[in-house]
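Fold this sequence, please.
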Amino acid sequence: MKELIIPDLVKNNRCEIVFCVKYKRKIFKDARLAECVEMAFRAAEEEHGTVKGKVQFVVDKIEVFDSYVRLEINFDPKFGAYNAVTKLKRTAVRRMHEFDPSLHSRLPSIWTHNTYFKTIGEQSSDEDIQAYVDSQN
């Protein structure tokens, strides 16, 4: 694989993102599904992260918990963190439904509509993230 050169503009726009599974279902207790969602995020980064040689977003860190996912991404400010999250969520849902078709009937809409964004410059505390996760339906 060709080494990706990340421009300084993208490196300097770092964001921490948390999104939750609907109804706080602990679907990622299944280690195979947790691994599947990690691979889906990497696939989304490969598919959508670079377009025509221009880096739009790069996923630095992925942490999968029982009912939510915590990511750190670098993104092009013209592309935006919200667009990166949209691409990540859509690709993950598609891959998870391919991996486990029964998931579609058990939980048709996997992610909540809300997403927690915070710039990396202000490191989020675990209490902030836990308060956000607890507030989700």
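The helical segments are 8-11, 31-48, 81-99, 102-106, 126-135. The radius of gyration is 15 Å.
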